[in-house]
Specification:
Chain lengths: ~150, ~150
Amino acid sequence: MGQQSSGELKYVSMLHRKTQIFLNERTKALGVSGAKVPFIFIACECGKLPQYQFCSMLDISKGTVAKMLAGLEKEGYITRSISAQDGRSMDVFPTQKALDLYPRLVEIGCRCTDKMTEGLTEEEREQFFRLLKKTALTMSRFVEAEQD
Amino acid sequence: MGQQSSGELKYVSMLHRKTQIFLNERTKALGVSGAKVPFIFIACECGKLPQYQFCSMLDISKGTVAKMLAGLEKEGYITRSISAQDGRSMDVFPTQKALDLYPRLVEIGCRCTDKMTEGLTEEEREQFFRLLKKTALTMSRFVEAEQD
DNA sequence: GTAAAATAGTTTCTAATGAAACTATTTTCG
DNA sequence: CGAAAATAGTTTCATTAGAAACTATTTTAC
């Protein structure tokens, strides 16, 4: 059982790291890092969104979100302004630069998931993404609950 | 399809990050970080192993392996010596400290995979780990092949 | 209405990681 | 044999990430 458990966990991080490398290689030529892609996706798909929503949508700490969005703002992919309703909150908007880039990033994302599930049947692919989502959300909720 | 592809990829990194947080919280009291656990597992399970084998077994870059093993050596979990057969190669050995810790780390690893797959049927659990391994290895081989 | 609590964001510190350049050995091959 | 290539490891640099301490606003409760 020891081998079993160590063996299973290592594939979680392996999949993550190799996916990041795949994305980085392909987005580098476009001038963005792979890690910024999900932020650009959300900004483009939502049009206007308070910053704290990035935390919950990506389940990433507010410190990391602050740093990533500050970087994206400096690089011209988003703009931010203090919310009219709540002086603590920042509204995030995509720039034209981000909107122009968006379809190409979507294409790269698709190529990544296609490569990942290459060799699986359509049924296995759906099953995999369904279970991946379920396990990720289980862990996420558990970790959050612990911090109370 | 855009929503689809961005949505799927984000769970890969979410599962990874939450898993690391889970492990870190539990191994912290034992004096090791979650990221070092796989290295200790391999050292304990193999007894004696050249350093470069850690790279292929974990699919981690040799730079990272060098740094992690240097840390583990300093902290007293492993010892290293130059191979008698090949002056470039380092043989890695677990210390008693690592061997004593090992069963507790295995226990924590099991609790993590149990938590992750909580709510899945036994069949889903097996399916998930099978597909996780398969996708991780697909990405790993592809990324390696590109670097030639 | 004000003090306390909650919330949104930033900053600092630290860890894990890969890329790439580097050193030192060993292997290959002409 | 000796030069070139391959291999094992280290080091430096940059990126991504969370924890925790911090500031500034808003909400809650008395």
